[in-house]
Amino acid sequence: MGHASGVPDLVGYARVSTSDQTLDPQHDALLAAGCYRVFADVASGALAARPELDRALDHLRTGDVLVVWRLDRLGRSLRHLIDVVTALDARGIGFRSLTEHIDTTTAGGRLVFHLFGALAEFERDLIRDRTLAGLAAAKSRGRTGGRPPVMTPSKLAAAQQMHASGQHSIATIAAALDVSRTSVYRHLPRSGSANRFRDGR
To answer: What is the 3-state secondary structure (H, E, C) of the chain?
Structure first.
């Protein structure tokens, strides 16, 4: 609507706790910020199910700005938030968060998101380093020969981290922790979580 006058169209997205979105303060804040349309998902246990967010992303065009009340309304995690905003930027679409006063159409807002990206990378490095350190400690405490020892809390934590990273097979995890593959299978979920973590979903 506003592109002809050089003013970007603002499209709002909310994640509300009730099906009556007009009762939610997010809705009022987004309208007050100038959003001509607000898409709203009702919060549920199924975090992956956000049909209105998908509709909002499809609706946006180059030059538009996606507006949220608060950062946690958009992203399921820091990584997911960065991925969404980066994808918007690649399409020439801005992003604005009202509560945190972040606007990626400004130099300051872009800087904040570069910092977020660096922090997410730093967090991944820390997890990887802790995982490797945990594996080394587990192997140094382990024993050779005989029946592999059962899963201890520290080994379970290391196995879960390795599995979540999506970079290690069950056989690799079992060998690194000096336990049987059966023990690893018994203690890890079978819902495909490794793929979800690898893809950032």
So the answer is: CCHHHCCCCEEEEEEECCCCHHHCHHHHHHHHCCCCEEEEEECCCCCCCCHHHHHHHHHCCCCCEEEECCHHHHCCCHHHHHHHHHHHHHCCCEEEECCCCEECCCHHHHHHHHHHHHHHHHHHHHHHHHHHHHHHHHHHHCCCCCCCCCCCHHHHHHHHHHHHHCCCCHHHHHHHHCCCHHHHHHHCCCCCHHHHHHHCC
Domains located in the chain, CATH noted: 3-105 (3.40.50.1390), 124-199 (no CATH)
**Global pTM exceeds 0.85:** no
Residues annotated as catalytic (active site), given as ranges: 17
Q: What is the pLDDT of residues 129-147, one digit of tens each?
A: 888 887 877 777 764 444 4
